[in-house]
């Protein structure tokens, strides 16, 4: 799961944030974890920030590091809870671009978002959530593409 705010350690450089879980869970040794961390930084477009401290990065960059950190354990499904809600508007696109890249790679994604255009562009299935329930769902090209009740606050991809 990738939360709307970065959960990176502020006391470690970016690359080190990406190696802790795979090593702790016995998935990778240190050398392989470092190699994977650098590959994941490439995936999120931040290889040049490997030695940077998260506190010195923009909100969008921190969010992309959080995405890479979540990917470090090679999940079969990624859940994003409002991945752009805490970002300045000019930083939203860089995070959405990374999520689009993940979707194209075949990673199964569940994204809770208010970014309706993004949901329409990327989703295979869309569900409209309101009042604590999924009130409408369908294929991206089907009924939920233009919700019957547009006041519902969230879309699930």
UniProtKB/TrEMBL annotation:
It comes from the Bacteria. SUPFAM superfamilies: P-loop containing nucleoside triphosphate hydrolases. GO terms for molecular function: ATP binding; ATP hydrolysis activity. The keyword Acetylation does not apply. Residues 1-156 form the ABC transporter domain. Residues 137-157 are annotated as: Disordered. It is found in: Cell inner membrane. Gene3D superfamilies: P-loop containing nucleotide triphosphate hydrolases. Keywords: ATP-binding, Hydrolase, Nucleotide-binding, Transport. This is L-cystine import ATP-binding protein TcyC. It is a peripheral membrane protein. Pfam families: ABC_tran (PF00005). Signal peptide: none annotated. Its EC number is 3.6.3.-. The keyword Zinc does not apply. PROSITE patterns: ABC_TRANSPORTER_1, ABC_TRANSPORTER_2. It is an enzyme of class 3 (hydrolase). GO terms for cellular component: plasma membrane.
